[in-house]
Specification:
Elements (H helix, E strand, L loop, with lengths): L2 E9 L2 E8 L4 E6 L5 E9 L12 H9 L8 H9 L4 E6 L3 E9 L3 H13 L5 H18 L3 H14 L12 H6 L2 H11 L5 E7 L3 H12 L33 E6 L5 E9 L7 H12 L5 H8 L4 E7 L7 E9 L4 H17 L4 H17 L4 H13 L6 H11 L2 H11 L5 E6 L1 H11 L1
Helix pairs in contact: 1-4, 1-7, 3-8, 9-12, 9-15, 10-11, 11-15
């Protein structure tokens, strides 16, 4: 086997085998014989973070068309090959990566992996399929505009990130989709789909050495070319945009979107640490404490005690670059100002008052319990281990994350909160005109 490096790690009684092929592709394999199933995730370091200026949504459109034809197979051929053996194969594009996922019985894994490799290595992006997916994506964009939460969240990200892809919808905009061509898909594909930027994660009833050998058989000789057709196997010809976040001011920055809805959506947002920061786990605990479930602080204080909220929670997504921390509420329009004050009060509270031992332990237990529940199936494990690799965290992060959460102190969490949430928040509002007018007057 022509692999440049191989390592193994034990995690929760499972041995994780990690190998880097000579072309830079990383393979992670774990044997789990509980069921006669093998799941795999092919993750590519890309996503919307790698979109060139003015090409918002190209990663989503490219991923949607990826399975619609290759140099040798039509969309129908691919569908028949997958469905004839009861397998599943799909694609996705997120903020930080692109994905090809597959699941099949163990005896068919080799054939499905070969098919996935052909899709990844030689897509054809048929023009009629591009046009069909473009229309479907435009429908999705229009549908999102009818969802107040989606509108408020999109507007908040735009306020925080400006023109960076993190501030745009992964679907793109009607304007960018209207101008997008098949050549744009090819350019993005050649920028991003490269073996040194790729991780193949495999979990199931399969010997890890055999799994790695199968990956090398279908991907080991792959040396892509750049968008200009020049061999550039030693480096990625295009890197993502640098992230420059609009700095907070002495006054909250506000975005208002008037919609005559029955309830109003208010969101308080803060730039927050990336997954590579030492503050990441503390922010995850804070997000769990504030917004996870019926026992969370925001739910108890603002919904149960004050009756303000239809829906209330916190969001802290994992990002390879700067993330964001959001506290939000859906409330009656007449309660908008009270709701904002309530959310701000709870944010201020975690900045100045440490969690009690009981609160801290409950948040840790909840976070670690849900983390464990997210690793029950082969597909979940393949996703997690591949995700950690493509984010640059490595296979040890699975255990490191759990250990760090367990050892966090209330003082460390308090310090993290005060560092991240001391500045005035970015504020996003979606709701009726009267509530919006009151909010604008307050901001003035």
């Amino acid at each position: 086997m022509s692999a440049s490096s191989s390592t193994s790690r034990m995690t929760q009684s499972r041995k994780i085998h990690r190998t880097v092929l000579q072309n830079g592709l990383t393979v992670v394999a774990v044997e789990n014989s509980a069921a006669d199933i093998v799941s795999s995730r092919i993750l590519i370091n890309g996503g919307s973070r790698f979109e060139r200026p003015g090409k918002d949504g190209v990663s989503h459109l490219m991923a949607a068309v990826l399975t619609k034809g290759t140099d040798y197979l039509s969309s129908q051929d691919i569908a028949e090959k997958v469905e004839s053996i009861g397998a599943s194969l799909g694609t996705d594009a997120t903020t930080d990566y692109c994905l090809v996922g597959l699941k099949t019985v163990a005896s068919d894994f080799s054939d499905v992996l070969k098919l996935a490799a052909e899709i990844v290595r030689s897509p054809s992006f048929p023009e009629h399929e591009v046009e069909l997916e473009r229309r479907l994506t435009l429908q999705g964009i229009r549908s999102m505009r009818e969802q107040p939460f989606s509108v408020a969240y999109q507007n908040l990200r735009s306020l925080i990130y400006g023109d960076h892809p993190y501030g745009e919808s992964g679907l793109g905009t009607e304007a960018t989709l209207a101008e997008m061509t098949r050549d744009d898909l090819w350019t993005y594909y050649r920028d991003v789909f490269r073996p040194e930027e790729m991780v193949v994660s495999i979990v199931g009833r399969i010997d890890p050495e055999a799994a790695i050998a199968q990956v090398e058989a279908v991907f080991g000789d792959w040396t892509p070319t750049s968008a200009e057709g020049v061999d550039s196997s030693t480096q990625n010809p295009y890197r993502p945009q640098s992230l420059e976040v609009v700095p907070p001011t002495s006054q909250p920055q506000l975005t208002v979107d008037v919609q005559e809805t029955m309830q109003a959506i208010v969101m308080l947002g803060y730039p927050a640490a990336s997954v590579h920061s030492s503050d990441y786990t503390a922010l995850k605990v804070l997000s769990t404490h504030l917004g996870n479930g019926l026992s969370s602080r925001l739910f108890v204080e603002l919904r149960e005690k004050l009756g303000l909220a239809y829906d209330v929670s916190a969001i802290y997504p994992t990002r390879v670059d700067l993330s964001h921390f959001v506290a939000y509420m859906g409330t009656a329009p007449v309660n908008v100002e009270t709701a904002i004050h309530g959310l701000q009060k709870e944010i201020d509270r975690i900045c100045h008052q440490a969690l009690t031992p009981g609160e801290l332990q409950i948040a840790k237990n909840k976070l670690l319990g849900q983390y464990a529940l997210g690793k029950q199936t082969n597909a979940q494990m393949a996703q997690l281990y591949g995700w950690y690799e493509v984010l640059g965290l490595g296979i040890d992060f699975d255990q490191t994350f759990q250990d760090t959460v367990a050892n966090l102190t209330a003082e460390e969490i308090l310090n993290t909160a005060s560092q991240h949430f001391s500045a005035p928040p970015y504020l996003s509002f979606v709701g009726p005109h009267d509530a919006a007018s009151m909010l604008n007057q307050s901001a003035e």
